[in-house]
Fold:
Amino acid sequence: MPGLFLTFEGGDGSGKSTQSELLTAWLTGQGRTVVHSREPGGTDFGLEVRELVLHRRGHIAPRAEALLYAADRAHNIATVVRPALERGDIVIQDRYLDSSVAYQGAGRVLDPAEVRDLSLWATGGLLPDLTVLLDIDVETGRARLDEARTRYDRLEAEAAEFHARVRQGYLDLAAAEPARFLVLDATLPVEELAEGIRARVATLL
Ligand code: TYD
Structure:
């Protein structure tokens, strides 16, 4: 059986981790071997990058930030994701290159096409078989996040305007690659979302 690379994307507070866990449990129940991963921080090296890029206080130049995410990604893909796909496993990952295009490209000042090319270089051109975008408006996402917030996070601390650009960036990406994306309204009930995701993933198995 060929491996599959499935990614979850969406704004902060969109419920990606809940849905990726539910999908992981469902696929495991079908007898598939699932590797669950995330960016930033899917590897030991990545955890160190994650500390820097998410929790370090003070300015980080936008290109430096983009390179840090790309470094985390390069290592995660080379050491976790590609080996798993080569074994025929399913990889379910919270966030991938679309996060960089939406946050570092649309959200910040960098050119989205350059940010995408950087990630493609970092990963040897690996694109997901399916990307689930959990779309949520900024205020609803923020309200969910405030309930869960525990630590200072550089990106979560950005203004609502930044998050609105990120959301639009994601929707533009999905419109440009409709075959790769499944866009769902993140305010739907958890079980309804899970069912929609399972139905789409079933077509790939
Ligand atoms: P994380 O704590 O993983 O939370 P969640 O995915 O639940 O929102 O936060 C990751 C943060 O990193 C998030 O604010 C988006 C940001 N990010 C980027 O800006 N660029 C990237 O390439 C990635 C992978 C994440």
